């Protein structure tokens, strides 16, 4: 309610400014590029939904083409709907287009200094290098034992309590990331690390699902109003989130520093980097430590829901396509036998399991939109009819050549493009693969039954914010 009052008052003040600015801009930059019809002044503002934007871009992409040019109250938004357009702009001309747009909703929390929202420049490169050093394909091998141990715990819990499979999968994902980021093993649902982050995610979700983000997008100057101003509840909320982030990154980092001092630290992203800093000849300053602890915490945030979304899609696909599940299970039985669970050394020998994982990522990409200077509609790209035959169908066989039909490519676009490509992709793929193969090798995924004994087939329905 307070936000609505605020909206009404700022609308009055800004309308005149917008009209003047729009009139000036319209003279110099007419919107002639393909896109849906726009309203005067506000352009496509009301046509772009707050949620499920990826689906809207996909629909428009089919109608208006690969590159959409949208007008949001005079600001141009370019949406790339094909791999070719995204590669051309973000890989071949990456230097120019790798910046993030400035978001008042991020700036209000002071998070624009963190890598994921940072400007494309020196600080971004230094943070990005931290990820590249510790999350390369080779380096991720160090964490395989921990992924396997956590996958075993997950399937044991699923067998004991199948209706809570989503919670067991979430715990698997969170455990792998805390192990990799901080060397910490989550031992129970009451674990400090889990509790802190759950509270933070809940608080963040509240802000993300309110109209505040939309409001700040339209009127960025609102980020500067004081906390006491009527209707400025979002500023207090943002302040709380900012403090929670600071508390957690410091807490996690201090725990690892203590473990390093007592010689109890296990190899992890944070421990390995801190050790390198301690042994380097360079003078270690606060900036180095701050960059490092922010990166470790960011890794936790970026890696959790995304990998979980992938696993949830896998379960849905297996429920809807039982014959695919059987075919993947038969492959596992044939290659390693019925009594053994494959590990990553068997990955190449299990091409159909690989295809199931790739198809899971393609069918519903966990991150449906990439967001640099140009928005990449990743789900439009993985559903491009020019590349994928019947793209809405979950069909892992598409990756093998068949009579009169060449093999289709793995959907590498699900990791984004160019200099902003996901730095956690090797870890994410190996976690996803390990979880999928453990589930396939140990349980059968079947629909629950209703009171009449009939299968309950879930609808294919996603809520889309930043991740699925
Ligand atoms: C299935 C799981 C995952 C998927 C599909 C995924 C996908 C993506 C995509 C598409 C982007 C680019 C977004 C953009 O350009 O706006 C991205 C960025 C990022 N991802 Fe992932 N990701 C996954 C898991 C992970 C994991 C496990 C980590 C950490 C270990 C991670 C860390 C990051 C970070 C830090 C960025 C920001 C990179 C930058 O701004 O330069 N992701 N991810």
Automatic annotation (TrEMBL):
Cofactor list: heme
Organism superkingdom: Eukaryota
Gene3D superfamilies: Cytochrome P450 (1.10.630.10)
Keyword Endoplasmic reticulum: no
Xref: InterPro entries: Cyt_P450, Cyt_P450_CS, Cyt_P450_E_grp-I, Cyt_P450_sf, Cytochrome_P450_fung
GO CC aspect terms: membrane
Keywords noted in UniProt: Heme, Iron, Membrane, Metal-binding, Monooxygenase, Oxidoreductase, Transmembrane, Transmembrane helix
GO MF term list: heme binding; iron ion binding; monooxygenase activity; oxidoreductase activity, acting on paired donors, with incorporation or reduction of molecular oxygen
Compartment annotation: Membrane
Residue positions binding heme: 422
Annotated transmembrane regions: 6-23
Keyword Iron: yes
Pfam families for the chain: p450 (PF00067)
Pathway named in the protein's UniProt entry: Secondary metabolite biosynthesis
Entries under PANTHER family matching the protein: CYTOCHROME P450 (PTHR46300:SF5), P450, PUTATIVE (EUROFUNG)-RELATED-RELATED (PTHR46300)
Similarity field: Belongs to the cytochrome P450 family.
Protein's UniProt name: Cytochrome P450
Organism: Meripilus lineatus
Taxonomic lineage from the root: Eukaryota, Fungi, Dikarya, Basidiomycota, Agaricomycotina
